[in-house]
Protein backbone atom coordinates (compact mmCIF):
# COMPACT_ATOMS: atom_id res chain seq x y z
CA UNK A 1 0.00 0.00 0.00
CA UNK A 2 2.84 2.36 0.80
CA UNK A 3 4.45 1.61 -2.56
CA UNK A 4 1.22 2.59 -4.34
CA UNK A 5 0.93 5.82 -2.34
CA UNK A 6 4.56 6.68 -3.10
CA UNK A 7 3.99 5.93 -6.79
CA UNK A 8 0.88 8.13 -6.94
CA UNK A 9 2.64 10.95 -5.08
CA UNK A 10 5.52 10.81 -7.60
CA UNK A 11 3.05 10.82 -10.50
CA UNK A 12 1.23 13.76 -8.90
CA UNK A 13 4.51 15.69 -8.55
CA UNK A 14 5.08 15.25 -12.29
CA UNK A 15 1.47 16.30 -12.92
CA UNK A 16 1.96 19.43 -10.77
CA UNK A 17 4.95 20.47 -12.86
CA UNK A 18 3.10 19.67 -16.07
CA UNK A 19 0.05 21.69 -15.03
CA UNK A 20 2.32 24.57 -13.97
CA UNK A 21 4.09 24.56 -17.33
CA UNK A 22 0.78 24.40 -19.18
CA UNK A 23 -0.56 27.28 -17.10
CA UNK A 24 2.51 29.42 -17.80
CA UNK A 25 2.14 28.64 -21.51
CA UNK A 26 -1.55 29.59 -21.29
CA UNK A 27 -0.73 32.93 -19.66
CA UNK A 28 1.93 33.70 -22.29
CA UNK A 29 -0.39 32.79 -25.16
CA UNK A 30 -3.29 34.85 -23.83
CA UNK A 31 -0.93 37.79 -23.27
CA UNK A 32 0.34 37.43 -26.85
CA UNK A 33 -3.23 37.33 -28.11
CA UNK A 34 -4.13 40.52 -26.25
CA UNK A 35 -1.00 42.34 -27.42
CA UNK A 36 -1.34 41.30 -31.05
CA UNK A 37 -5.07 41.98 -31.17
CA UNK A 38 -5.31 45.31 -29.36
CA UNK A 39 -1.86 46.88 -29.63
CA UNK A 40 -0.43 45.67 -32.93
CA UNK A 41 -3.92 45.21 -34.44
CA UNK A 42 -2.87 41.94 -36.10
CA UNK A 43 -4.40 39.07 -34.09
CA UNK A 44 -2.83 35.63 -34.07
CA UNK A 45 -5.64 33.13 -34.57
CA UNK A 46 -3.64 30.10 -33.41
CA UNK A 47 -3.08 31.45 -29.89
CA UNK A 48 -6.79 31.33 -29.12
CA UNK A 49 -7.09 27.74 -30.26
CA UNK A 50 -4.06 26.48 -28.35
CA UNK A 51 -5.17 28.41 -25.25
CA UNK A 52 -8.53 26.67 -25.32
CA UNK A 53 -6.95 23.22 -25.47
CA UNK A 54 -4.39 24.08 -22.79
CA UNK A 55 -7.23 25.12 -20.50
CA UNK A 56 -8.99 21.79 -21.08
CA UNK A 57 -5.84 19.86 -20.15
CA UNK A 58 -5.21 22.04 -17.11
CA UNK A 59 -8.73 21.39 -15.83
CA UNK A 60 -8.81 17.63 -16.41
CA UNK A 61 -5.29 16.85 -15.27
CA UNK A 62 -5.41 19.36 -12.41
CA UNK A 63 -8.65 17.79 -11.19
CA UNK A 64 -6.71 14.64 -10.41
CA UNK A 65 -4.57 16.64 -7.99
CA UNK A 66 -7.71 18.03 -6.37
CA UNK A 67 -9.05 14.50 -5.89
CA UNK A 68 -5.89 13.45 -4.05
CA UNK A 69 -6.02 16.41 -1.66
CA UNK A 70 -9.84 16.37 -1.32
CA UNK A 71 -10.16 19.92 -2.64
CA UNK A 72 -13.04 19.49 -5.06
CA UNK A 73 -16.10 21.63 -4.52
CA UNK A 74 -18.59 19.74 -2.40
CA UNK A 75 -21.83 20.23 -0.55
CA UNK A 76 -20.86 19.06 2.91
CA UNK A 77 -23.84 19.98 5.07
CA UNK A 78 -24.69 16.29 5.51
CA UNK A 79 -21.15 15.57 6.69
CA UNK A 80 -21.53 18.25 9.36
CA UNK A 81 -24.64 16.73 10.96
CA UNK A 82 -23.83 13.01 11.01
CA UNK A 83 -21.68 11.07 13.45
CA UNK A 84 -17.94 10.60 12.77
CA UNK A 85 -18.46 6.89 12.12
CA UNK A 86 -21.15 7.59 9.53
CA UNK A 87 -19.08 10.43 8.12
CA UNK A 88 -16.33 7.98 7.24
CA UNK A 89 -18.87 5.62 5.64
CA UNK A 90 -20.40 8.45 3.62
CA UNK A 91 -16.93 9.52 2.44
CA UNK A 92 -16.18 5.96 1.30
CA UNK A 93 -19.52 5.71 -0.52
CA UNK A 94 -18.86 9.05 -2.20
CA UNK A 95 -15.42 7.93 -3.32
CA UNK A 96 -16.80 4.69 -4.79
CA UNK A 97 -19.48 6.64 -6.67
CA UNK A 98 -16.73 8.95 -7.89
CA UNK A 99 -14.72 5.97 -9.17
CA UNK A 100 -17.76 4.77 -11.11
CA UNK A 101 -18.24 8.23 -12.60
CA UNK A 102 -14.54 8.58 -13.48
CA UNK A 103 -14.54 5.09 -15.02
CA UNK A 104 -17.49 6.02 -17.21
CA UNK A 105 -15.78 9.29 -18.09
CA UNK A 106 -12.61 7.39 -19.01
CA UNK A 107 -14.46 4.88 -21.15
CA UNK A 108 -16.68 7.36 -22.99
CA UNK A 109 -13.87 9.91 -23.23
CA UNK A 110 -11.73 7.29 -24.93
CA UNK A 111 -14.60 6.40 -27.28
CA UNK A 112 -15.10 10.08 -28.11
CA UNK A 113 -11.37 10.50 -28.72
CA UNK A 114 -11.51 7.66 -31.26
CA UNK A 115 -14.57 9.17 -32.95
CA UNK A 116 -12.91 12.58 -33.49
CA UNK A 117 -9.54 11.12 -34.52
CA UNK A 118 -10.08 12.05 -38.18
CA UNK A 119 -11.38 15.55 -37.46
CA UNK A 120 -8.96 18.46 -37.59
CA UNK A 121 -8.85 21.58 -35.45
CA UNK A 122 -10.11 24.69 -37.25
CA UNK A 123 -6.92 26.74 -37.34
CA UNK A 124 -3.91 24.51 -36.84
CA UNK A 125 -5.37 21.42 -38.55
CA UNK A 126 -4.09 18.84 -36.05
CA UNK A 127 -6.24 15.94 -34.92
CA UNK A 128 -9.06 16.77 -32.51
CA UNK A 129 -8.12 13.54 -30.73
CA UNK A 130 -5.31 15.47 -29.03
CA UNK A 131 -7.85 17.85 -27.49
CA UNK A 132 -10.30 15.12 -26.47
CA UNK A 133 -7.57 12.89 -25.03
CA UNK A 134 -7.59 15.14 -21.96
CA UNK A 135 -10.85 13.52 -20.86
CA UNK A 136 -9.66 9.91 -20.50
CA UNK A 137 -6.19 10.96 -19.33
CA UNK A 138 -7.52 13.18 -16.55
CA UNK A 139 -10.24 10.70 -15.58
CA UNK A 140 -7.76 7.85 -15.31
CA UNK A 141 -5.53 9.98 -13.08
CA UNK A 142 -8.57 10.78 -10.95
CA UNK A 143 -9.33 7.07 -10.53
CA UNK A 144 -5.76 6.39 -9.44
CA UNK A 145 -5.97 9.23 -6.94
CA UNK A 146 -9.29 8.03 -5.51
CA UNK A 147 -7.67 4.66 -4.79
CA UNK A 148 -4.81 6.50 -3.07
CA UNK A 149 -7.31 8.42 -0.94
CA UNK A 150 -9.10 5.19 0.00
CA UNK A 151 -5.80 3.55 0.97
CA UNK A 152 -4.84 6.58 3.01
CA UNK A 153 -8.22 6.54 4.77
CA UNK A 154 -7.76 2.85 5.57
CA UNK A 155 -4.26 3.47 6.93
CA UNK A 156 -5.51 6.41 8.99
CA UNK A 157 -8.38 4.26 10.31
CA UNK A 158 -5.98 1.50 11.29
CA UNK A 159 -3.70 3.94 13.11
CA UNK A 160 -6.67 5.46 14.95
CA UNK A 161 -7.77 1.97 16.04
CA UNK A 162 -4.25 1.19 17.28
CA UNK A 163 -4.29 4.45 19.23
CA UNK A 164 -7.54 3.50 20.95
CA UNK A 165 -6.21 0.12 22.07
CA UNK A 166 -3.17 1.62 23.78
Describe what you observe in this structure.
With 166 residues, this protein is an all-alpha fold. It has one domain (2-161). 81% of the residues lie in helices and 0% in strands. It has helices spanning 2-39, 45-68, 77-81, 84-115, 129-132, 134-165. The longest helix has 38 residues, at 2-39. The radius of gyration is 20 Å and the shape is elongated. The chain starts with a helix and ends with a helix.
List the helices and strands and how they pair.
Blueprint: H1 2-39, H2 45-68, H3 77-81, H4 84-115, H5 129-132, H6 134-165
Brief account:
The protein contains 6 helices and no strands. It has 166 residues and is mainly α.
Key phrases:
81% helix, elongated, disordered C terminus, 166 residues, 6 helices, mainly alpha, single chain
- Please state the CA-atom Rg, rounded to the nearest Å: 20 Å
Number of domains: 1
Q: Rough shape?
A: elongated
- Mind summarizing the main beta sheet? none
- Average pLDDT across residues? 91
User: Structural class, please?
Assistant: mainly alpha
Amino acid sequence: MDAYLNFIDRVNNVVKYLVSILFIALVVLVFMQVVTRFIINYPLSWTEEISRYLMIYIVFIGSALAVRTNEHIAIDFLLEIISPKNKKRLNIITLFISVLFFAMLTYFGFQLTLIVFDQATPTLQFSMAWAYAAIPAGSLLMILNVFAVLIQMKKRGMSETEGEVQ
